[in-house]
Amino acid sequence: MCGIAGIVGKLDASNHAALARMSDAMAHRGPDAQGMWQSEVDARGWGAMFAHRRLAILDLSPAGAQPMVDQVTGHTIVFNGEVYNYQELRERLALEGQTFESSGDTAVMLRALGLYGPKAVAWFRGMFAFASWDRARRVLLLVRDPLGIKPLYVARNQDRDGDWAVLFASEIRALLASGLLGATRIDPRAVSSVVWNGFVVGPETMVSGVELLPPGWILELNGDGSEVSSREHWAATSAPAPDRILTERELEHILEEDVRLHLLSDVPLGVFLSGGVDSSAVANLAQRSSRAPIHTFTLAFEGSELNEGPIARRVAAAIGTEHREVVLTESHVVEQLETALDSLDQPTFDGLNSYYMSRAIRAAGFTVALVGTGGDELFGGYSSFRDLPVLQRWARRSGWLPRTALAWLASFALASRRRGQVDPQTRWAKLPDMIRRGDDLTALYQLAHALFLPEFNTELLASDVAGALVDGLTEKMRERLARETRSRSALSAVSIMELRMFLGERLLRDNDSVSMAASIEQRLPLVDRVLFESVDLLPETTRYSPVGRKAVLRRLGLQGLPPELFERPKRGFELPFDGWIRRGLKKAMDEALLDPGAVRAVGLRPEAVERLWRAFLDGAPGLYWSRVWAIYVLVRWCHRHRVFR
Questions:
Q1: What's the 3-state SS for 110-148?
Q2: Residue 554 near residue 565, CB atoms below 8 Å
């Protein structure tokens, strides 16, 4: 787990200094070592330069340092992430006569790429974003893992006479630190995305001209920055193979191996334990694979109904882990808020819970932490799996009702208009719009998850920003969702949407930036290509039934634990922000949201933002804390990084 950066351009002192600034901006991602490398120059003095910040996890010796040059093939790599099946790949290559100086995964990846080219990417099981330079062909290879666990941002120079053609880095902030992007401007699609979704949907980013390489993607570029190819190396099939059905017993073996592979580490390792089904399953499977007690951590809140400390203690005792509880107080959150918000690489209303937990785990001397993220998307744990297919069927069967029904529903949902300055922004209030779009499951999904009603969404956005997206989706993301859900059942399609949107575009990116800000490697056993492909072969009754229970994960992951520990309402792992916003965080948010110039500069309408903020403080019904928090983080991020309209 590290930070990577690079430049394709003129190999001169100016670009070298720019690369050094990019590396320095990612020092938190790799406090253990740093390195730089440059290729041979071509006739006009151009080539590739790489920088690497190392968080040492596997092979702590200098042999594992990067940028790594392979003495056999001449290829060079900078790599962020882990390839968990590297030992199997090492044995495969050893049978061909290959030997290695390093005991880690990077050397194995590099040799495979040098010998077999981009087709070797399909062999890698893990989380990864990497850049590889082919010395003989003078071609740069940029690759991102199938499910998008590790990010990779790319900027291409529009000035053909410039001294650089391509920049890439693990974080947008590193690209900004290069000083090569010139006057940075907001991408209006990103503003629209944050207001709709609460986060930026890729491949667009907050910075115009900077793109996020899509998950499962390969980009090949020549030494002058021109594109050789851009293509997927993995995508979810539009429908699972009908002639292959996986048994529950087979899945059990795959799940056990999955967790075992994620435990490979040469440094201390722990597990985030909230006490829910997903994190408890990961902790339980990890303990069953380990001879020594696994270390678990829980984030607890003083005097809060969201406090899961007591139940997590009971689960940890049942599993037999060495358990620690980190108590987070409101005063601590307020004191550390600026640092925590600075850890976000793009605006998002989520992520800070993982930031505080990551800081606590790092302070306790641990470098790697397993988390249970991904179980809901795989096994149908969210309410969307129950609600959206039902709503779609209802809308399709009620073709003769819409006008009368919609009029009644609209009047019911908006009956509280006179009680507040802003209408309730709830799923019930969106119901008329959702019924109108009932044939389009993707639109239903987006409306259900939208922060605001479509009408108020438009009110919040400046005129040149409103309409930048349709249903909060970029065109490329809509095309991908359509391609990967075609021919799937409604339940299976919702799973893909949750996997690509909520998980891929929000949770994974948030968790990467905030955990790396604390120099912690987060590993996600339930977000794994092989596991996904396997679960996708289960009969739907096994995988989802009863919807919302994740019954198969309970059976396989919670063996030996008292079932009554998990018989309680589902609750997400979140901070008690509602009260904190009304008290300790109110002053900072007042200053940002009530400043017309600050709000206007990021593409929002000051009068609408002020109405929203005051309505929230007045206790208007149906206005959850996430609505105002998303707007605040957007305004703050843009001003912090000086990225404006």
A1: HHHHHHHHHHHHHHCCEEEEEEEEECCCCEEEEEECCCC
A2: no
- CA triple 93-95-98, angle to 5 deg: 50
* Single-letter residue type at 262: H
- What tens digit of pLDDT does each residue of 225-276 get? 999 999 999 999 877 666 778 999 999 999 999 999 999 999 999 999 999 9
Residue owning tokens 């605001």 = 452
Rounded to whole angstroms, the Cα distance separating 214 from 564 reads 41
Is residue 79 within 8 A of residue 126, CB to CB? The reply is no
Q: Where are the alpha helices (DSSP H) in 489-544?
A: 490-497, 508-517, 529-535, 540-544
Residues with Cβ within 8 Å of 238's Cβ and at least 6 positions away in sequence, in order, are: 483, 484, 485, 486, 487, 488
DSSP 8-state symbol, 473: B
Nearest to 103 by CA among 48, 134, 59, 44: 59
369 by Cβ neighbours in 10 Å (0-12 / 13-18 / 19+) ranks as buried
Whether 434 and 448 have beta carbons less than 8 Å apart is answered as yes
Q: Which pLDDT score, from 0 to 100, does residue 403 have?
A: 43
Largest CA distance in the chain: 77
CA distance 158 to 176: 16
Using the predicted structure, report yes or no on whether residue 547 has a pLDDT greater than 80.
yes
**What are the contacts of 29-35 at 24+ separation with CB within 8 A?**
29/1, 29/2, 29/3, 29/53, 29/55, 29/80, 29/170, 29/171, 29/516, 29/519, 30/2, 30/3, 30/54, 30/55, 30/519, 31/55, 31/519, 32/56, 33/65, 35/65, 35/66, 35/67
pTM of whole model > 0.90? yes
Query: What whole-number distance in Å separates Cα of residue 1 and Cα of residue 555?
Result: 32
Query: How many CB atoms are located within 10 Å of the residue 337 CB?
Result: 15
